[in-house]
Amino acid sequence: MSISTLLAALLALTSVAYIAGRRRAVVGSASAPIRTFHSLPGYYGGYVALWCLLPALALLAIWVVVEPIVLRAAVIDSLPPELAELPEDRFGLFLADVRNLVDGNLVFGAPDPAVQAAAERYAEVRKTSRHLLLGSLLVVGVASLVFALRRVQPAMRARIKVEKAIEYLLIGASLVAILTTIGIFLSVLFEALRFFRLVSPIDFLFGLEWSPQTAIREDQVGSSGAFGAVPLFVGTLLISGIAMLVAVPVGLMSAIYLSEYAGPRMRSWAKPLLELLAGIPTVVYGYFAALWVGPALRRLGDALGLEVASESALGAGLVMGIMIIPFVSSLSDDVINAVPQSLRDGSYGLGATKSETIRQVVLPAALPGIVGAVLLAVSRAIGETMIVVMAAGLAANLSLNPLEAVTTVTVQIVTLLVGDQEFDSAKTLAAFALGLVLFLVTLALNVVALRVVRKYREQYE
Amino acid sequence: MSEPGPVKPNEPPRTRDRVAEGLRRRYMKERAFRLLGLAALLFGLGFLAIFFVTLVSNGASALLQTRILLDVELDPEVIDPEGRRDAVALETANYQQLIRDALNRLFPDVTERSERRALYRLLSPAADLEVRELVLANPALIGETRSLWLLADDDVDMLIKGNIDRDVPESERRLSDAQIGWIDALLDEGRIERKLNRYFFTSGDSRDPELAGIFGATVGSFFMLLVTLVLSFPLGVATAVYLEEFAPRNRWTDLIEVNINNLAAVPSIVFGLLGLALFINAFGLPRSAPLVGGLVLTLMTLPVIIIASRAALKAVPPSIREAALGIGASKMQTVLHHVLPLALPGMLTGTIIGMARALGESAPLLMIGMVAFIVDIPESPLDPATALPVQIFLWADSPERAFVERTSAAILVLLAFLVVMNGIAILLRKRFERRY
Amino acid sequence: MRMFRQATAEAMQPATTPRQTTAREPAPSAAPTYRTVGDHRAANPIITARDVNVYYGDKHAIQHVNLDIGLNEVIALIGPSGCGKSTFLRCLNRMNDTIESARVTGEIKLYDEDIYSKQMDVVMLRARVGMVFQKPNPFPKSIYDNVAYGPRIHGLARDRTELDEIVQKSLERAGLWNEVKDRLEEPGTGLSGGQQQRLCIARTIAVSPEVILMDEPCSALDPIATARIEDLIDELRQNYAIVIVTHSMQQAARVSQRTAYFHLGRLIEVGKTEEIFTNPRHKLTEDYITGRFG
């Protein structure tokens, strides 16, 4: 009996509860005629249904959490001692095999008799557990149904109670956002702390050499690989810097042209087209950078007698910059449009030309907002993954030469975590340490940028 | 300059003359600045144009696939020597032999074994499956000789499409001189043609480019978006309704608000880390499953939907709320009966745009193992799968030349989906846009 | 009340027909359909406006206006909201150019140059015809930079000393020097409303224009600040020609020598200020200044 079947049964019971509750309010009784009820009949139905559903649902949730633990204990009890004493990770694999067998998933090779036996035991215990669960769900559901039904009285203010319940539901939904942030922070922090037990944070943050691959080989001797992340930070900043050099002037000038010079007709087609750039998935940019821009730059370098790596920082940065153009331009557009017309009039009234007005009045007035926009763009560039994974290098060169291949924080996170992995090696945990740095840096940038932009908006409201 | 009337006051000629002096220079600067703006705009739009031209010119050829016309004798001796004609016999028969025989008949002078193997390699390893399909569909054909357009190998395809240079020395080419000779002979006889590439739209990934398709990835993306939609829409709308209509203004709701804004700007790869640590390692959900991908994308899409939904709720004028409250509706009734229906189109628009973004997202999916090589078409959100953008990532990494055009074509398909989704969003907005 | 309605109808009647015909194809030479009461000429004219029409799209916002702006005088433009007085003011230094749908016909001359001709440069025109706006709009720069902005863009000062001189002189003339001389580097937005408006006036006179246009310069200010600006306007009259749009008839009476009364896009009456206020000749003018509407 699967959980979804149980859920369906529960829902069926809930609808019965709704109908019963509603009916009771519709029909009324000798002592409680219909007109005396506080709320509409539907609310009484909802009231009873909620009473029926919620306790049972809570029970189901607890059961789903507790059941695997109980099952595991039951299986361990029945195992021969040599299996029960397996090391933790091997045992986990064994349990996974058992579960796969029970679920009828494909298991390669003939199942081990021990696994077979354990699987049978597992299935048996689970069957009992599910029966027990169904029974208790019914008992709880019906009991609370009856309890609620008895409370359907004219004086009971069902609407207020139901509405309160819905409100709590809404509050619960809005907590998901908070929980996500906490979840991100805790899960990344937790793994990062495990990493810092293996590698000191000082070495990580200030070390100049990064070679996690060798660390795996040295793992047996004692995990002292090279986990100095400075080359990654420098590489990230280099590529983001190139991207900003492209995106900020181009994005800003496009925004200026569109909002101050272009006629309404040009604006109506050019602006959506430019924003189309923002809708293109980053993997497409990455493909473009790796297959067209990289080689083109290399050929160009050859023609000029320069040595350009085919995965140069320049190529990745350039394409990333193009990706960020619409981001900068639409944010700047908002900011520029927020500069009050009276300032422009004041400047025109003195005889300033358009460009003088823009450069000397509009831009200085919009500066805080533009700074905020640029900060947001930087945070986006730092966190961008696909372009650099596809078009930047893997080797951690500590270099500021844009023609060389450098690697970035996000590239390393991906390379460390893609493919087979043991979860306890310093190599995989390093990815989480990098993720923590990335999260904190972008978070700080965002907080500052959003505050700057908000302050700016308030100034002209 | 002759001026009628009195002498002008306070000697302003200075202003006039000095302004006149600088005018030319200032107008040049003005023009330069304007041109700079136009150049910046054209830079962005020019890239967009290059982008699409490259993609279309590269991807269009993936729609057609080279096929070779062979006269295949459906020899009963080879297919079913025992004459059983049951399903097992027909399914396991050696169809490869039929194709080889047909090739041998075409090129009788190719006798040496290694040469013959080179000849056989002109056809895709899956060509025999096509013959099998034909026989299984109609066993009565056995014994006849049929002219069949069979799938060519990707190297042949690339040569026909002009992506293999005949002038390159033989050792650096993927096709030998002899193979090219045979291909030319087939071409002369009109036995090579490009036909619609059905594998591209109907199959999953494959190591053989001529068999690789995007259907598996598309289904994977579909399941993922389904999970995302089912979770993020109700959650997002509920959050927006609470924050906009019910929440008191205090430090807690402020915190939630700041949180949501920041969450929208957290790099997507960090969500991937969360998915890996939480859903896979802590909750034990399967790797590579669209369910996990959908969960991760839900968390990413949620802020987008919340922000859009709040904007939609804000656009509903307070007079409507006052009208409902004024006739005695409760706060909840006002919101559910009046405000929410009016705000729904805006919320849907935001949701579709969020979905479109989720569809294009790939970085977090790499973290949760959706980057595996998966041939089968997933049947449920729990089957291992990949997603369209990840498929593009995988193919972009593949060395075979034939994957270049497939990557471009897959990108075009992805962009088509995005255009359709955004188009729907725009239509929805236009249709239901209200000016209060 | 009945009289008023008649008068309005009388003023409106002739316009309706030509307005419809001119809406699509406005002919600059179309004959005026009403007569302005009083003498529109000034003794020493700097700006002469003849048969000026302004259209916003199909709307005929200014109709056949003739008016001179003379040296050493303050001319006040009064009239109810939407009567076109601000629009007319903005024609005089082509600030209407920034509004895309606006179209101006007729002839406005600064001395003998047509300001709407091709030869006239807008930048030059606005350097010669300065403008002060309704709401104080100092740039988000220091007080010094606000005043130096015009001289800088126009290249009026040869060096820093000359610029310092211009800034100081302008601030002195605007009566602001003593209040701000110790904090010239502070942002202009930090001043009080009245000070900001005087800063804007200083910014305008720093360019040494020949005419200053003021669009309700006191409407955002308190009475004390208003009084200071009015004194300032009176002083500035010695050197400039000033056109001031105002909503306050008292202000018009206090600061101006001549007054022009606009109504629904038409210049109804123009004349010496004391005559307009003591002995209006047109019924509409009388109704307005006696406060029957407006």
Provide structural commentary.
The complex is a heterotrimer of chains A (461), B (436) and C (294). Chain A folds into two domains: 3-156, no CATH class; 226-459, MetI-like fold (Orthogonal Bundle). Chain A contains 17 helices and two strands. Chain A has helices at 3-27, 41-78, 81-84, 88-103, 113-150, 158-198, 201-206, 212-218, 230-261, 264-279, 282-304, 313-338, 341-349, 354-383, 386-391, 409-417, 426-459, and strands spanning 210-211, 226-227. Chain A has a two-stranded antiparallel ribbon. The longest helix of chain A has 41 residues, at 158-198. Chain B has 436 residues and is mainly α. Chain B is extended and about 90 Å long. Chain B starts with 12 loop residues before the first helix and ends with a helix. Chain C has a six-stranded mixed β-sheet with strand order 6-7-8-3-9-10, with helices on both faces. In chain C, strands 2-1-4-5 form a four-stranded antiparallel β-sheet, with helices on one face. In chain C, helix 7 (193-205) runs parallel beside helix 8 (223-236).
Structural class of chain A comes to mainly alpha
The arrangement of helices and strands of chain B along the chain is HEHHHHHEHHEHHHHHHHHHH
CATH hierarchy class name of the largest domain in chain A: Mainly Alpha
- Biggest interchain interface, per-side counts: A-B, 89 and 80 residues
- Helix percent of chain A reads over 70%
In one word, what is the shape of chain B? extended
Q: Strand order of the main beta sheet of chain B, please?
A: 2-1-3
> Taking all residues together, what is the mean pLDDT of chain B?
87
The tally of domains of chain A stands at 2
Q: How many structural domains in the coordinates of chain B? A: 2
Shape of chain A: flat
Q: Proportion of β residues of chain B?
A: 5-15%
